[in-house]
Specification:
Length: 95
């Protein structure tokens, strides 16, 4: 999801400095401001990106297990998100 969001930003907001989107949190913040709040990306996809990041932080840094239901959710949402970002990069309207 991170790479797809970054590609969408580079496609739709190419003047954003690359250092602003190097970290996950920076990318999510800029993605929200530039793509979600402007209406290019539906709010639900922005929320999904945030929730996926929360699960990544739990798994990577807290060491807590991510249950099977959460894992299935993030895989499904990732597929939807990546497809949407491809469509956005190709100039299709998501809203």
């Amino acid at each position: 999801m991170f790479d797809a969001a970054r590609a969408a930003l580079l496609s739709k907001a190419p003047t954003i400095p690359s250092d602003a989107v190097r970290s996950h949190s920076g990318l999510i913040s800029v993605f929200s401001l530039q793509l979600v709040k402007t209406g290019l990306v539906p709010i639900e996809l922005g929320r999904d990106l945030n929730k996926a990041e929360d699960l990544r932080l739990i798994a990577d840094y807290k060491g807590d297990p991510v249950d099977q239901e959460q894992t299935i959710w993030v895989v499904k949402k990732s597929s939807i998100f990546v497809s949407a970002m491809i469509s956005l990069c190709l100039g299709e309207n998501l809203t």
